[in-house]
Design brief:
single chain; 373 residues; alpha/beta; Rossmann fold; L-2-Hydroxyisocaproate Dehydrogenase, Chain A, domain 2; 11 strands; L-malate dehydrogenase (NAD+) activity; Malate dehydrogenase
């Protein structure tokens, strides 16, 4: 108790010894399945050791700005980011009602200081000094609303906000939640290019909700603990452009082709499922806020130098012929450190990949055209 640092060092030494033992067993065990399990255990322990080692040091000051913080996604997202110990300053901006949200969230006894900003006149203050900007601003999808209706409203909002980001926090990471993400990310890129500060490593379309849904639905069918599930999701963030790679899911389960097709369809239609369940009175706000907070946390960890942070995101990419594409991305101090290859695809997934390209290409072109009008 007098020297807690000694106890930490002893625990670290024990973990290191444990790793050596596991690696020896993995190398010499005659059982292939046992070796495979040991390798996974070793990798998990290494990652845990690295993260604990990092967390024991001082955590950098990080300002996070949420644009659209008084909305259906913005409010629960503000709450979740207030709970994140990596955030030191939480800036909440919207065109109305932000002071109330900031006062409410600000009473929570966690590290970050919360300030609410309202209206165009306060947007600059909300953004100045931000390390990460999250944009859930815009209107939700409603029954009967066409994609063009949604696009015309949200695209204008995104265009104005990105112009302000370019001016007041040009080096911040930008997490785009506002739909349609397939188009709003290209809009943001064009606005940043015009301002002369575009860095493709710092612009992200948040597709984490597709991953969250794929994990949940897969776990239910595979009858495995959802916390252990990982499913990469590639493509875009709307309808058929969403392509979960269940062939790469872990842990592997022997699911039939029909089940995998149904899981893919449900993942693609997840947003519609929620809109219909809410009887037209809302969209996926709570699960989107959760997914947005997960991805923001990954970005902050990357900025802080935590190793091997990998998430799926819609970014500028060269892994297909399309200029923007969602796939696994390694995050780091500069944002995107590496866009990872797609890996092996099943025949069903290869067909899905080719089928989504025309739709995604059209959405990208639509965003670029709008930004340059």
């Amino acid at each position: 108790q007098k020297h807690p640092w000694k106890w930490k060092r002893i625990k670290k030494q024990r973990v290191e010894t444990y790793l050596i033992i596991i690696e020896c067993l993995a190398k010499f065990s005659p059982c292939k399945m046992f070796r495979s399990a040991l390798v996974r255990s070793s990798a998990s322990a290494k990652q845990s050791l690295l993260r604990r080692s990092f967390s024991s040091g001082s955590v950098p000051e990080r300002k996070v700005a949420i644009l659209g913080a008084a909305g259906g996604i913005g409010q629960p997202l503000a709450l979740l980011m207030k709970l994140n110990p990596l955030v030191s300053s939480l800036s909440l901006y919207d065109i109305a009602n932000t002071p109330g949200v900031a006062a409410d969230v600000g009473h929570i006894n966690t590290r970050s200081q919360v300030v609410g900003y309202m209206g165009d006149d306060e947007l600059a203050k909300a953004l100045e000094g931000a390390d990460l900007v999250i944009i859930p601003a815009g209107v939700p999808r409603k029954p009967g609303m066409t994609r063009d209706d949604l696009f015309n409203i949200n695209a204008g909002i995104v265009k104005n906000l990105c112009s302000a980001i370019a001016k007041y926090c040009p080096h911040a990471l930008v997490n785009m939640i506002s739909n349609p993400v397939n188009s709003t990310v290209p809009i943001a890129a064009e606005i940043f290019k015009k301002a002369g500060m575009y860095d493709e490593k710092k612009l992200f379309g948040v597709t984490t909700l597709d991953v969250v849904r794929a994990k949940t639905f897969y776990a239910g069918k595979a009858n495995v603990p959802v916390a252990e599930v990982n499913v990469p999701v590639i493509g875009g963030h709307a309808g058929v452009t969403i392509l979960p790679l269940f062939s790469q899911a872990t842990p592997q389960a022997n699911l039939s082709g029909d089940v995998l097709t149904a899981l893919t369809k449900r993942t693609q239609d997840g947003g519609t499922e929620v809109v219909e369940a809410k009887a037209g009175k809302g969209s996926a706000t709570l699960s989107m806020a959760y997914a947005g907070a997960l991805f923001a946390d990954a970005c902050l960890k990357g900025l802080n130098g935590v190793p091997d942070v990998v998430e799926c995101s819609y970014v500028q990419s060269t892994i297909t012929e399309l200029p923007f594409f969602a796939s696994k991305v390694r995050l780091g101090k500069n944002g995107v450190e590496e866009v990872l290859d797609l890996g092996p695809l099943s025949d069903f997934e290869k067909e899905g990949l080719e089928a989504l390209k025309p739709e995604l290409k059209s959405s990208i072109e639509k965003g670029v055209k709008f930004a340059n009008q």
